[in-house]
Amino acid sequence: MSVGSIVVAILLVLGVGLQVVACIGVAAMRDTYARLHYPGVAAFGLAAIAAAIAVDAGPSMIADKALAAAAVVLVTGPLLTHVTARSARRRRLGDWTIRPGEQVERIER
Amino acid sequence: MSEWALAALVLFAVLGACLLLPALFDPIDGLIALELSGTTGTAVLLLLAQDLERQSFVDLGLILALLTFVGSLAFARLLERGP
After folding, report:
1. How does pLDDT run across B52-80, given as a tens digit for each residue?
2. A26 touches B at CB < 8 Å
3. Cβ(B54)–Cβ(A62) under 8 Å?
4. Which residue of A72, A81, A87 is in closest CB contact with B65?
5. What are A54-75's pLDDT values in tens digits?
6. By CB distance 3.0 to 4.6 Å, which of A63, A85, A86, B82 could disulfide with A54?
């Protein structure tokens, strides 16, 4: 068993494990805002799987495209999380600005 | 069965669970499950392309990753209106 195949196995187990943990997290959390933390975990799982493919295939088209797909998900993930959180708050309250009485730390500019 | 196919099979179970979640919770939680299943689906397509040794199939994963972003944005916009 070569070093490369051991690295591939470790990355694959890590990637699949992170995605399974993300799914359990989304299912188990109590409210929407707690659930929102977990798609980001799954994005890192995808990055590990893409890295496993890149290590196995070496420098090639399949490795480049897999890493590009992982990069797309890693970049767009935070945007989607923010948009979903805003959408959830608007859905509940009609607006996403701070309500009177809410304990929010203000940033001085 | 290779390790790639095994990993794809496990992730397929995750996809099935993501399908079940919106039926149990609020639609906005269904949107979160959609985002999760987009990431997992991309991983499944990448793993299957590697398992079948068809390099051109990796494009499907890349396109799914891009389209999940656009689709989720549209759903987030629509779900803002409230129940």
Report:
1. 888 888 899 899 999 999 999 999 998 88
2. yes
3. no
4. A72
5. 998 888 888 899 999 999 999 9
6. A63
**What residues of B are in the A interface, CB distance below 8 Å?**
3-4, 7, 10-11, 14, 17-18, 21, 26, 28-29, 31-33, 35-36, 38-40, 42-43, 46-47, 49-50, 55, 58-59, 61-62, 65-66, 68-69, 72-73, 76-77, 79-83
Taking alpha carbons only, the member of B68, B8, B79 closest to residue A84 is B79
Predicted TM-score of the model (pTM): 0.89
Taking the C-alpha atoms of residue A45 and residue B40, their distance in angstroms, rounded to an integer, is: 9
Nearest-by-Cβ selection for A69 from B10, B55, B65 = B65
- C-alpha B54 chain-centroid distance: 20
User: Would you call B77 helix, strand, or coil by DSSP?
Assistant: helix
Q: Cα–Cα distances in Å, from A21 out to A41, B14, B38, B52, B53?
A: 8, 10, 16, 27, 28
Instruction: Say how many C-beta atoms besides its own lie within 10 A of residue B36's C-beta.
Output: 29
